[in-house]
Amino acid sequence: MSTPPYADELNLCLCHTCGLACDMTDEPHECERCGAPLHRRKTNSLTRTWAYMIAALVFYIPANLLPVMNTEMVGHGADSTIMSGVLEFWEAGAWDIALIIFIASIAVPGIKFVAITLLLITVQRDSEWARKERSTLYRFVEVIGYWSMLDVIVVALVASLVKFQALADIEPRPGILFFGLVVVFTMLSAMSFDPRMIWDKERENPHNEEVTDEVASH
């Protein structure tokens, strides 16, 4: 069964800015519609993805160990880390805020670290395992990345709300800066990964599945 041609076989490239299919014959390689530079593939995708993810992991340690905010009630102040803040909100009855902070600060970064590492390792090993599912996993990582700043926003909102009370005050601490860096570097890591690498092995052996099916039928 014949397969449709690939974009680079037709010398076409999709603009990442406006989505136009552009002809790569003439130089410079710029989008005809928006003028953005064109690249057939994300340059040094694996190297940059690993670098950003390792940087995010390094910042993730102080983000969880250092206090993210200081709560002062009636003259008595106490620093809170992410996890202790979750417990304090939960014990105070604000389970919804505690749940949001836990998901955004603990669950989401952990999921992204595991997912991106899985994608990187399988691509480097030229794995043919679950290509479609891995592509879906990458899209999922992109989607949850947009919600990664929820924790920083929640801390800012809580601080602004508490400041309205005369006997209470909340101030951010260095941990929130490191968590912001974790968010930025995990987003850069996901953006640097080229999901087309998942399908490169299949492209090198386009008839592999057909041959396997024929052998199985005989």
Number of helices: 8
Cα distance spanning the termini? 19 Å
CATH architecture of the largest domain: Up-down Bundle
Order of helices and strands: EEHEEHHHHEHHH
What does the overall shape look like? elongated
What value does the average pLDDT take?
Answer: 76
What does this protein look like?
By secondary structure, the protein is mainly α. The chain folds into 2 domains: 1-40; 42-217, Butyryl-CoA Dehydrogenase, subunit A, domain 3, CATH 1.20.140. It is built from 8 helices and 5 strands; from the N terminus they run ββαββααααβααα. α1 runs antiparallel to α3 (95-124). It is elongated. The protein starts with 11 loop residues before the first strand and ends with a helix. 19% of the residues are buried.
